[in-house]
């Protein structure tokens, strides 16, 4: 899928005295088979860009095109193709058990899965099966992040979007996030990872986009050509 942003600005509290321009006149296009590192200081607009890509907020100016179409006319169809893990995983949770949490997105998007698929994604993120009956709210930050990632993998997205995926993870957790991204890439699919720790993911990415104060400061493709 081709994603295009044309002169996109996102302005919060527009025309009030607390107006905040979070993204300013962004022109960006990428294909969902690219592996993209999104970096920038806190407040530079990374999370806002992710909300926009997942169609949770609309541009204040400019427009988005997904395969040449206005995605806001087909939000369900396009959101289904993304697997988004937000910055604070527990804000995404609302189920009583990890199992319900992990299966929610797949059910919601009408994507069939088996018990074996559930076990596979648990293994991939490094969680044990006995966690399924537990409450997602009682887990550690690292486990919650793994649950959030497991839930998005179960609906078999074609593009992953991870917002600060290593927050709350120990080294083992970081390595398992890297493994997930690597496997995804090796299967011909792409991802966008927003992070303030670029060194953890730089080698996995073909493209680096640097945001500063809501604008694109740098957009570079690595010398290894994407095939
Ligand atoms: N809902 C909101 N209302 C008002 N301002 C916001 C809102 N969300 C984000 N902002 C502001 O927009 C800017 C970009 O924020 P954000 O996208 O979260 O940056 P990052 O993820 O790079 O830290 C920040 O100045 C932030 O305070
Ligand atoms: Mg953020």
TrEMBL record:
Q: Which SMART domains match?
A: AAA
* InterPro entries linked: AAA+_ATPase (IPR003593), ABC_transporter-like_ATP-bd (IPR003439), ABC_transporter-like_CS (IPR017871), ABC_transpr_CbiO/EcfA_su (IPR015856), ECF_ABC_transporter_ATP-bd (IPR050095), P-loop_NTPase (IPR027417)
Q: PROSITE patterns from the xrefs?
A: ABC_TRANSPORTER_1 (PS00211), ABC_TRANSPORTER_2 (PS50893)
Lipid bilayer topology: Peripheral membrane protein
Q: Does the keyword Thylakoid apply?
A: no
Any one Pfam family match given in the protein's UniProt record, by short name: ABC_tran
What's in the keyword line of the UniProt record?
ATP-binding, Cell membrane, Membrane, Nucleotide-binding, Translocase, Transport
Record flagged with keyword Translocase:
yes
Q: Which domain of life is it from?
A: Bacteria
GO molecular function of the protein, one example? ATP binding
Q: Might you report a single GO cellular component term? A: ATP-binding cassette (ABC) transporter complex
Write out the annotated subcellular location.
Cell membrane
Q: Where would I find the ABC transporter domain in this sequence? A: 3-227
Put simply, this protein is called ABC-type cobalt transport system, ATPase component
